[in-house]
Amino acid sequence: MVLCTAVGLASFVPSANAAERSTASGEVAVVAASADSPKIVKQPKSTAVVKGKKARFTVKAKGSGLTYQWSVKARAGLWKRVSGKAGKKKTLVLKAKGAYDGASVRVVVGGKGTGKKTSRTARLTVISRPTFELQPASPLVDAGSALTLKARASGNAVKYRWERSSNNGASWQAVTSYRSSPDLKLTPKLKESGNRYRVTAKNAAGIRTSRAAIIVVNSTRNDAYAEGSTVVMNNWTVLIDRAVYDLTDSGDQLVFGMTKACYRGPGKALAWSDLAIEYVGTNGVVYDNGDVFIDGDIWDAPEVYTGGCVAFPSFAFPAHGTALGGVWRIKDRSDWNVDSVAFVEGPTKS
TM segments (predicted)? Predict the structure, then answer.
């Protein structure tokens, strides 16, 4: 920019106290500050406002014949002057729209003299109701294993509260208070299988609730189904009841339980082909029937169609001192993609 003086032409680089500099939007700075230029004594402050509410930016200046011109620049846009009377007051009032989130605001203050002052830039944050960008997923986890449920919501100053339902979503109980961390860490037990979890995201603009995640917990040796429980597997449900421990005539240990298996898959199936029922002793070793066959055992179970059930005894010969306190291990091999494995408590007394 060039100034005309009494002696000719002189180059001039505007300082930070000069008027607004040239911008890509076409705003052009005017002449540099003169002795009677206005002085900004209170700069506009950044603010956060709920979407739909009004945001106010105020400047305080000293000088004679003060004038104001406010400008706004969207997050990825160019500086644009606020038109009309609204842009020429010492306080700028904007309705907080989503497009204004992250916008920059500044004002040029003029006076009687030729000089003008540009304020510092203030930032507008528009607070919108949270929106979930990551919903909690329904996990499959072994009992006693660590699990982290994750969720994320967009929005300003979002806080999260997790809730649990143990009755298929009929009622919910809070498991955390509102906090900034969106994740929930759990170590679920078998009895918690089927519990639902959801999270509410909250900020000044409102609350939004996520979808519910259902936790499916697999049984383990240390957290097994109780005797007499109906265990749902790939294509079968299996129940082992009246488990007993005894000694054979030869002195070997024997565990024995009555088993009911119901087929719920398509077509027809054979229990001996799909199911393997063994016994895990307290030493962690897996034992089977030892190639002993008795009338009416799983090998004699007839073919069944969808909805059909068969009953047979399951038995195994564990090592001495390992039977009491062990568990049955049931494996359903009817799904070619993955075996389903479950554990059921064995006898606790002879």
Answer: none
Residues 6+ apart with CB under 8 A from 204: 48, 50, 127, 156, 157
**25 phi, psi to nearest 5 deg:** -85, -5
Largest Cα–Cα separation, the chain: 127
Instruction: Tell me the CATH architecture of domain 230-345.
Output: Sandwich (2.60)
CA distance 104 to 122: 6
Alpha-helical (H) ranges within the chain are: 271-274
pTM: 0.75
Residue type, 328: W
Query: Which pair of structure tokens corresponds to residue 85?
Result: 């009377």
pLDDT score at 240 = 96
Domain ranges of the chain: 15-127, 131-218, 230-345
CATH 2.40.50.140 matches 15-127: no
**How is domain 131-218 classified at the CATH fold level?**
Immunoglobulin-like (2.60.40)
| Strand ranges, E, within 46-205 | 47-50, 54-58, 60-62, 67-73, 79-81, 91-95, 103-110, 116-118, 122-127, 131-134, 140-142, 147-149, 152-154, 159-165, 173-174, 184-186, 196-203
Give 310-322 pLDDT, tens digit per residue.
Answer: 999 999 999 888 9
Contact 340, 265 (CB under 8 A): no
pLDDT at position 320 is 87
| 25 pLDDT higher than 50 | no
Pairing of β 140-142 and β 122-127: unpaired
DSSP 220: B
Secondary structure element (H or E) that encloses residue 280, with its range: strand 275-280
Q: In whole angstroms, what is the distance from residue 27 CA to residue 277 CA? A: 82
| Residue 318: how many other CB atoms lie within 10 Å | 26
The 3-state secondary structure of 312-338 reads EEEEECCCCCCCCCCEEEEEECCCCCC
